[in-house]
């Protein structure tokens, strides 16, 4: 499992005092507010201590200690931010997308393997697992009627396939 996960991107400066606009790649501002430190790399070697963070529309306005001018902010604009998974909590029944990718999708009744999750999409109503098997992609809705068990430790998602989901045309 990845220790440092992408949480967003610093896509622009905000004002002249070193604040930045952050596009959120996580569940929202409350998740980001759990962190005291975010990182400019996926190894945790470039820490930035958060001075403040607040919501603005569907983004965050974030200020880091030591980034005190628009010139300082310009130097990190465009960078992706990472959070240490140990520094935040998620709901007991929630999973990180990074942990779902690579999981095998298996029929809960027959143990038939449907492929491996290569991406997790969301168009509003629910997550959708993009599953690939032998070059063919199948989109599986991550709803309780379909997804019955997720075990990221063993990299297995057990599903009850809906009628038509895997039927050939």
* CA(first)-CA(last) distance: 37 Å
Low-confidence stretches: none
Shape: elongated
Averaged pLDDT:
93
Radius of gyration: 19 Å
Strand order of the largest sheet: 3-4-5-2-1-6
- Give, in order, the helices and strands: EEHEEEHEHEEEEEE
The biggest sheet amounts to: 6 strands, antiparallel
Find the structural class using helix and strand composition: mainly beta
Q: Into which percent range does the helicity of residues fall? A: under 10%
Strand content: over 45%
Summed up, the helix count is 3
Number of strands: 12
List the helices and strands and how they pair.
Elements lengths: L3 E11 L4 E6 L4 H4 L4 E3 L7 E10 L2 E6 L5 H7 L3 E5 L12 H4 L3 E4 L5 E10 L4 E7 L2 E6 L5 E5 L4 E4 L10
Parallel strand pairs: 7-12
Antiparallel strand pairs: 1-2, 1-6, 2-5, 3-4, 4-5, 7-8, 8-9, 9-10, 11-12
